[in-house]
């Protein structure tokens, strides 16, 4: 009698009984501890049954859909016609005939990379059934008339979350790659996966915190964030790092970078070969970087004004003490760019001219079309979030990380579920994913202000609607030369939204669009030879018109930025070593603030 085999795979062998026993013992012991920790964390906290306000959005969608049943019937007829064709084609394939697929996956979709999804009739049928169903659901919810934009966006987003979760690649019995590995290992992959699941629940203290990379392979300051420098100043909110020069002379005007405090600054200094910080130093800039604190409950009352005062103004004062220079070039990344623009408007009201140029990395100042993050911004969700922050004094880093991961769920959630729990494999060491998992907390007062006044009410773009540090904020008063770099596939700061700033600032503006997304499009050194960027000297009101008239250039945008910023001031001075007699170094870069984890 022939051995039973899985499709495309070897004979199944029994798992090691000792491993099974050991794993089950661990499940009992560790599971009890996880539940205990989780219940302790829930003690005294309010539980909202629908914190994302999903039910209301889908109820409205269903009501609108039922008002036009013809639309639903037509969609169902089309779906069943496609499904019937799929049945017929599958039957033909099983009889040895050729049959074209009814629907094909996107070539970039890594969920179906295994050949069995195409070569094995059963798995090809499962895959195409899923793709047809996914298209049906998304077309139905996306075609409902009468929904307001925010409700439609929320319904579409959470439908996609459901569709992604139900992919056959996420389940043992419908993933040929997992079945093959289960047969090869005798099920030991599933036992290892269960152990990984327990470890991730322990990391999250009862909440699932999926491990994306082997974090034991990385040490901040040892093999990431290693560009030499010194911390020369610090206060409650930040440490200021001055990097050591590598050239005999440097540009007279220092360069200061304000990264977002939603993430950590070392995305700009991951490795020597892709470090923007190191590259800027090599081009002759005296580089300063703000390293934000990972706040705890003692900083709950720190607001946006404090980030202006202690962050931007604090850095400017420290740089003058360290170098003797009053004027700087400034870069703001994402939320750091929003902070920079807000502070520049404040400085314009006071006639403070210390920042001579501003560069904005993927920065929104007009939040009217905020992309998919907008699905998390409504009154019900903000109220629920503020209740949590009021109890703790901050937004937990894991919650912020989950929000961003949901924007790319297949890549940042489900691929790791399959790899870690079903395949039973260790995650691959990857510095970018280590950084992505190194989340930060957000002070309650600041985060509430940011979400309500900027995301929900879009007040930053309204002249005088926001008053900070005694001045009404009017972005139109910003007259310094501005360089805006956005990325074409950005899911966090959509480029058509960031482009709106070109019509707001009063000074000269250069807008450049890079290929790829929020991180890869920005962190793209010239030596990588990757991607491209688009330039256009004209700035029409319509971003699509700008793109139609733009010229595509191969490679990184970094050299374009360097030419732009040096054209504003080419004077050189002898290279400056970190610190000065007035501002001696405190500790080596990257400092201690960046090493504080959200779980500490």
Can you describe what's shown?
Pfam families: Abhydrolase_1 (PF00561), PhaC_N (PF07167). GO terms for molecular function: acyltransferase activity. Its main location: cytoplasm. It is found in: Cytoplasm. With 600 residues, this protein is of the alpha/beta class. It has two domains: 17-190, no CATH class; 229-396 and 441-595, 3-Layer(aba) Sandwich (Rossmann fold), CATH 3.40.50. Helix content is 42%, strand content 12%. It contains 19 helices and 17 strands. The strands form four sheets. Strands 15-14-13-12-7-6-4-5-2-1-17 form an eleven-stranded mixed β-sheet, sandwiched between helices. The longest helix is centred in the N-terminal third of the chain and has 26 residues, at 17-42. The chain is globular and about 80 Å long. The termini are far apart. The model is unreliable at 1-8 (pLDDT under 50).
Helical content, roughly? 40-55%
Largest sheet: 11 strands, mixed
Chain-averaged pLDDT: 91
Measured between the Cα atoms of the first and last residue, the distance is: 59 Å
* Alpha-carbon Rg, integer: 27 Å
CATH superfamily of the largest domain: Alpha/Beta hydrolase fold, catalytic domain
The unreliable regions are 1-8
Number of helices: 19
Shape-level CATH architecture of the largest domain: 3-Layer(aba) Sandwich
């Amino acid at each position: 009698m022939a051995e039973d085999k899985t499709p495309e795979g070897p004979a199944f062998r029994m798992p090691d009984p000792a491993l099974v026993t050991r794993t089950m013992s661990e499940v009992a012991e560790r599971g009890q501890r996880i539940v205990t920790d989780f219940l302790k964390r829930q003690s005294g906290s309010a539980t909202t049954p629908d914190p994302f306000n999903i039910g209301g959005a889908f109820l409205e969608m269903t009501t609108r859909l039922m008002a036009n049943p013809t639309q639903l019937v037509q969609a169902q007829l089309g779906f069943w016609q496609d499904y019937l064709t799929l049945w017929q084609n599958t039957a033909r394939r099983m009889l040895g005939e050729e049959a074209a697929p009814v629907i094909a996956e996107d070539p970039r979709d890594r969920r179906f990379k295994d050949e069995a999804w195409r070569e094995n009739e059963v798995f090809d049928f499962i895959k195409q059934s899923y793709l047809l169903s996914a298209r049906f659901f998304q077309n139905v919810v996306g075609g409902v008339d009468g929904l307001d934009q925010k409700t439609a966006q929320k319904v579409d987003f959470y439908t996609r979350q459901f569709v992604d979760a139900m992919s056959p690649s996420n389940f043992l019995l419908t993933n040929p790659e997992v079945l093959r590995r289960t047969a090869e290992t005798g099920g030991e992959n599933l036992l290892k996966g269960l152990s990984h699941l327990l470890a991730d629940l322990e990391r999250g203290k009862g909440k699932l915190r999926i491990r994306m990379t082997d974090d034991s392979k990385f040490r901040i300051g040892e093999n990431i964030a290693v560009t030499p420098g010194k911390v020369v100043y610090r206060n409650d909110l930040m440490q200021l790092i001055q990097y050591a020069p590598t050239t005999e002379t440097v540009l007279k005007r220092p360069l200061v970078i304000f990264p977002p405090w939603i993430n950590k600054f070392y995305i700009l200094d991951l490795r020597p070969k892709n470090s923007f910080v190191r590259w800027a130093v090599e081009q002759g800039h005296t580089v300063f970087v703000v390293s934000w604190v990972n706040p705890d409950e003692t900083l709950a009352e720190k607001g946006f004004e404090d980030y202006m005062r202690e962050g931007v103004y604090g850095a400017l004062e420290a740089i003058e003490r360290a170098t003797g220079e009053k004027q700087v070039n400034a870069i703001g990344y994402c939320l750091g760019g929003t902070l920079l623009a807000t502070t520049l408007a404040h400085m314009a009201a006071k006639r403070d001219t210390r920042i001579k140029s501003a560069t904005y990395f993927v920065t929104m100042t007009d939040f009217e079309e905020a992309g998919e993050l907008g699905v998390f911004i409504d009154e019900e969700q903000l109220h629920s979030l503020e209740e949590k922050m009021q109890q703790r004094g901050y937004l937990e880093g894991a919650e912020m990380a989950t929000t961003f991961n949901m924007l790319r769920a297949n890549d940042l959630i489900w691929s790791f579920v399959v790899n870690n729990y079903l395949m039973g494999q260790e995650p691959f060491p990857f510095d970018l994913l280590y950084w992505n998992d190194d989340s930060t907390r957000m002070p309650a007062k600041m985060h509430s202000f940011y979400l309500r006044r900027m995301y929900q009410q879009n007040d930053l773009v309204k002249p005088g609607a926001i008053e900070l540090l005694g001045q009404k904020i009017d972005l139109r008063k910003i007259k310094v030369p501005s360089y805006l770099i956005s990325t074409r596939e950005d899911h966090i700061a959509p480029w058509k939204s960031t482009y709106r700033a070109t019509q707001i600032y009063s000074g000269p503006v250069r807008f450049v669009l890079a290929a790829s997304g929020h991180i890869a499009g920005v962190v793209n050194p010239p030596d990588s030879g990757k991607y491209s960027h688009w330039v256009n000297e004209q700035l029409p009101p319509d971003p699509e018109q700008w793109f139609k008239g733009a010229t595509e250039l191969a490679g990184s945008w970094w050299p374009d930025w360097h030419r732009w910023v040096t054209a504003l001031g080419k004077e050189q001075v002898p290279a400056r070593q970190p610190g000065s007699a007035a501002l001696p170094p405190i500790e080596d870069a990257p400092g201690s603030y960046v090493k504080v984890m959200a779980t500490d």
